[in-house]
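Task: sequence design from structure.
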């Protein structure tokens, strides 16, 4: 008989570089109905040194990138081990970790998440399931987003599930299939300009709210080719670095106005992405704390009801769902949907590293 209860740790590092999210989760399944409980959880911030290393990873030659992968695998292992020891976690079925995305160019058949080297299982002394994106790209998919199957299984009461992290992405049901795609950059850009004001992030969107919209910049942003593409589609930091920031920097306006304009842009693109503005939408991710951004999203999506959940779900939904992806992989069940990524078929993605692997 298939196992019905799982005790796992979900680990996620996002493009916003806030840190590593870790969540200890109990999953149960009865008659194909899944339930979960998030137990201990925390975000371990990156040091300034690691923020710079991860930001610059995209520019490294192959040898230096391989060195960074090794170093990051060790760093991530230390973080996971400390979490396990701190909360005295026992009988763990698996650590399910995303790693950290350095390169994401699915159009070129490339995606790279560092921190997924086989040695990680030995370093944390646990079974590790990781590297969830590569197989999908090999099957012709975008390798992203991967969270929607978790939305389908765990959050089916909502008409839309919107994540506001480094990028925004949404998932929903359409013609009997789960559909999901990246919408636009969010915190990758907002944090960049908040840092220009000496802030780690724009708390509650206060700095953005103090600025004015530059209509020409807003129009220019909204006319970018990515927004006209049909899904499946996904974004990487390359888009921010090579397209968004250079475009904004062409406008000689204040940082406050740049933040205000980009916040409006985020809300506009989210509204454009939703086929029907009815029902209710769950919003999670760090951007859910940006009350000014939430206000603008509500304005553009009325009469859709916006639901911002409890703190654990806001902050650790992605870690939760990567935990679920790992459990589904253990069960050899589908954890990646071709309707979402555009791959040749649904599949069970990820690699399992046993403790004895070197």
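Answer:
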């Amino acid at each position: 008989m298939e196992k019905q209860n799982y005790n796992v740790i979900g680990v996620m590092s996002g493009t916003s570089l806030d840190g590593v999210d870790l969540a200890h989760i109990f999953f149960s399944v009865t008659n194909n109905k899944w339930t979960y409980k998030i137990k201990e959880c925390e975000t371990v911030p990156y040091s300034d040194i690691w923020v710079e290393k991860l930001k610059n990873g995209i520019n490294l030659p192959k040898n230096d990138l391989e060195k960074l992968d090794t170093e990051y695998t060790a760093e991530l292992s230390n973080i996971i081990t400390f979490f396990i020891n701190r909360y005295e976690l026992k009988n763990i079925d698996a650590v399910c970790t995303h790693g950290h995305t350095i390169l994401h160019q699915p159009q070129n058949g490339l995606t790279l998440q560092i921190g997924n080297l086989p040695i990680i299982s030995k370093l944390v002394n646990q079974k590790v399931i990781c590297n969830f994106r590569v197989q999908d790209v090999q099957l012709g998919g975008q390798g992203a987003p991967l969270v929607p199957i978790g939305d389908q299984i765990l959050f089916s009461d909502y008409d839309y599930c919107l994540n506001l992290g480094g990028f925004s992405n949404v998932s929903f049901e359409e013609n009997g299939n789960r559909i999901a795609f990246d919408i636009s950059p969010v915190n990758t850009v907002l944090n960049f300009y908040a840092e220009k004001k000496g802030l780690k992030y724009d708390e509650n969107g206060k700095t953005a709210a103090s600025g004015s919209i530059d209509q020409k910049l807003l129009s220019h942003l909204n006319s970018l080719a990515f927004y006209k593409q049909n899904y499946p589609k996904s974004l990487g930091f390359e888009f921010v670095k090579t397209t968004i920031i250079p475009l904004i920097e062409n406008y000689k306006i204040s940082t406050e106005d740049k933040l205000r304009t980009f916040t409006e842009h985020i809300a506009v693109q989210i509204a454009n992405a939703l086929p029907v503005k009815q029902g209710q939408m769950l919003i999670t991710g760090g951007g859910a704390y940006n009350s000014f951004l939430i206000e603008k999203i509500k304005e553009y999506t009325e009469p859709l009801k916006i639901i911002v959940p409890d703190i654990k779900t806001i902050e650790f939904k992605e870690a939760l769902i990567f935990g679920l992806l790992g459990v589904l992989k253990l069960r050899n069940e589908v954890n990646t949907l071709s309707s979402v990524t555009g791959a040749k078929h649904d599949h069970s993605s990820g690699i399992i590293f046993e403790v004895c692997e070197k």
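The chain has a mean pLDDT of 95.
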